């Protein structure tokens, strides 16, 4: 079982898989294929051509549009030096998406709450159609979980008596919301990174320059225009060759097939990150509302307790008091995580009954 929800897994697992798959594609072309091919003079031997390709790949190339002259000043040339490091960048992005989950697990261990053991309840052991002996075994295991939760709450109450404001009662919920906020900030950071490598002026001063309402469609479409100098397909390369006492300078034109793959990969990643940002934002606001407004979940807890058929006179006021004064935000979070990761919803009802 997991100790998070589907949107968290979309960030830490599926996005990491996409980034690692992109890393594999780019690395195969870069290290097993031919990432650069330079058009060399006719007097170059095959070994000279291989040397030109290697030195242009290592030292980098610069972009100059065909309709413009080659700048004589080196400082005015638009050098492209980062495409060699794209696989490492993709791996780094995958690490940033998995890091919040590692932080979440590390903080849980320091809190002394084995949430994984609580959520990892084997719902196939809790089947009402089984024998009474098997059901009693599952119930005893359920009581062990409830006992663990009770010990946690007693420890929280005992420690919080020293404070006027209880800083410990909602620490698990605060940690979970903080983790989700880190996921959200991480997606925003990766959007900015991909934008800086791909899009011409998505987050530039375009909107500030055209802050009036009456800007036309062409100006708006220019915002999403790709910059050809970011991943150029055709570049120039300067290198020197020493022949005894003479030093010859060569300028060759190179084609970068690797940049065709890089550009398509980052276009897909930019679209994926925007999609992920919308889902993560909605999910964060949803969990913030569920854990902040505790009374909103009192109705669902009331329905679960009534479905157990063990209460004769269960009022909504009693359920609200149980949720507000005993379960609190941390208890509701644990119940929600069990409900999300367990197929048998009767398991949550049984735990709530023992907590009651």
From TrEMBL:
The keyword Cell wall biogenesis/degradation does not apply. The chain crosses the membrane at residues 82-104, 181-199, 265-285. It is a multi-pass membrane protein. One of its GO terms (biological process) is monoatomic ion transmembrane transport. This is Innexin. One of its GO terms (cellular component) is gap junction. PROSITE patterns: PANNEXIN (PS51013). Glycans are attached at residue 43. Its main location: membrane. It holds the Pfam family Innexin. Keywords: Cell membrane, Glycoprotein, Ion channel, Ion transport, Membrane, Transmembrane, Transmembrane helix, Transport. Structural component of the gap junctions. It is found in: Cell membrane. Belongs to the pannexin family. The keyword Cell membrane applies.
